[in-house]
Amino acid sequence: MKRWIRWQGLLAFAVIITLTGIFWFFFVDNIIKNNIEKYGSKAVGAKVEVEEADLSLIPFGLKLNNVQIANPNAPMRNVVEFERTAMSIEFGKLLMRKVIIDEMSLEGLRFNTERQNSGALSKKQNKAVATEKDKKSGLSLPSFELPQAEDILAKADLKTLEAAKKLKSDIQNAKSNWQERLKSLPDKEKLQSYKERIEKLQGLSGGIAGMLGKAKEASSLKNDIQSDLAQIRQAAKDFKEQKNDLQNKINTVTSLPAKDVNRLMDKYAFSPAGAENYTRLLFGDKAADYLGTAIYWYEKIIPYLESGKKQQNEKEVTKTRAEGEMVYFREKEPLPRFLIKTVKADVSLEAGDLSGTIKNITSSQPILGKALTFDFSGKKLDKADLVSFTGSIDHSSVNYTDIFKVNTKNYRVNKIILSESSKLPVKIEKAAADINGSAEVSDGKLNMNIAAMMNDVNFSQIPGGDIAADALKTALSEISNFIIQADVNGTLDNYNMKLSSTIGQNLKNAINKVVSSQAAKLKDELRKRITAKVETKIKNLKEEYAGLDAIQKELNSRLKIGSDLTGMLSVF
Predict the structure, then answer these.
(1) Is the dihedral of CA 531, 537, 540, 542 positive or negative?
(2) Exposed, middle or buried by CB within 10 Å (0-12, 13-18, 19+), for 525?
(3) Helix pair 278-305, 503-546: axis angle to 10 deg
(4) What DSSP state is assigned to residue 461?
(5) Which end of the chain is more exposed for a tag (fewer CB within 10 A), N or C?
């Protein structure tokens, strides 16, 4: 009789199933958890920690609880953390070595949270971050303790002296050149010889033949005189133009001491021109930190989205079946190795909770052919009437464009530290911000514009004691609303950020009141000292210029002789 059941095989199968179940129950979750932490930490450059991982078979999916991703540049803070995530994975695609997640949920998503333990991967990194932090010195306004006039002039290069030296050389060269040119012009001796010929002509007589000869000689003589006289007249015209030009330059040099005074005042003391930098002084460090952080994470993420380019290139190469490990075959609907089609997330901000979606998260955008998009918003929050953040990242082709937009209405913020300096601390205690901003990265070029209207602003008290602190205290105490604009252009590696704000004008006015009297005294002292210093140089210039009068007299004398000669010939 045949046996329907082979007990040896059934026993072996039962043992395998039992061992697989034991392995699954006791080890698989820890293996997944450890791998996420290991490879996630390697990718981020800081600790990635998962409290619990749970892989389920029916339905096939994965849950993670209490995930923290440390900030590599600030190890005691998390870049992001979330309480729970759950995802369903297509098992059939997994057998084809593709992780395709139709939908993923994120709960309790938060950014920039504090950690209990350092997230640094090594002590070396921790030390480097601390060193970088020590370099920040906070706000440092220009010194308004005005220097002494004599100290300023001791190291100043006066434009007046430079211009006077050059002009003196120009006048001397002009004088030398004209002296040489005079030698090439008809001189008094030559003109005198014309007079002798005229007198000789006047003494000639002798009938009709003599009269005809005299007329012919007179015509030739007249042509010679007019030719020489034309040269002298042209020289006189050229000389007059150059002399006028030199006179204008002397007038310009004479006006330069006043410009030297203004230039030195701008450089060493307060001036409206110098105050244009105060917006950058107040907000520049904070803006640079925000922008630098954004670019850092943008550049961190992008390589993972573009990795499909290599895979796409590999697919174009003809492969022999089963040749090598990585063999790609043409797919009716190509899919990348990793894809999360939709993420639904709840984000916890200080202002309140936002909800939104992220679509098409993949490591191979060129294969998927779709952009990663995100759209988060919240209305009537605890500390804001509206917060929205939308955008797209599209690297599916060689020429790419990524767009980011942010918009807030009545976002009530507090404790914004602008300066941690112990001498001049500046902090916004509270304010309500209306922000409208957009950024575009196209083929490596960055173009960003952000405008923020700050309402109901309350700055912290600033200790007085010196001119700068008193001026800043006065200015900020009078401000309840201001607008700040940031414009960024360039490349991701080399960009220029221009900051402007209405607060700069307030600070200018306040500082101007504090230092105006001191500045007026310094300006008057500089004027006196510069005038005394350049007075001799300008006097020497005028003396050099007066030396040109001799050339003028010589030209006038030759013109007079030529004119007289022309009159003498008029009788013929």
Answers:
(1) negative
(2) middle
(3) 110
(4) P
(5) N
Convert the pLDDT of each residue in 288-328 to its tens digit. Answer: 888 888 888 888 888 877 665 554 444 444 444 445 445 55
Q: What is the pLDDT of residues 406-438, one digit of tens each?
A: 999 999 988 888 777 666 678 888 999 999 999
pLDDT winner (highest mean) among 257-261, 272-276, 408-412: 408-412
Query: 46: which 2 tokens?
Result: 């800081």
Give the three-class secondary structure for 350. Answer: coil
Task: Specify burial of residue 440 (Cβ count, 10 A radius: 0-12, 13-18, 19+).
Answer: middle
Distance, CA of 210 to CA of 204 (rounded, Å) = 7
Cis ω before 59 (30° cut-off from 0):
yes
Cα–Cα nearest to 428, from 368, 386, 479: 479
| Range 485-511 burial, b when 16+ CB lie within 10 A, else e | ebebeeeeeeeebebbbebbbbbbebb
- Which residue in 303, 272, 325, 309 sits closest to 512, CA to CA? 272
Task: Mark out the alpha helices in 149-206 (DSSP H runs).
Answer: 149-154, 159-184, 188-202
pLDDT (tens digit, 9 = 90+) per residue, 430-462? 999 999 999 999 988 999 999 999 999 988 877
Task: Return the pLDDT at 269.
Answer: 60
Q: What is d(CA 35, CA 39) in angstroms, rounded to the nearest whole number?
A: 6
Q: 0.85 cut: is pTM over it?
A: no
Domain ranges of the chain: 7-134, 136-286+395-572
Phi, psi of 497 (to 5 degrees): -110, 120
Q: What is the dihedral of CA 34, 37, 40, 44, to 10 degrees?
A: -150
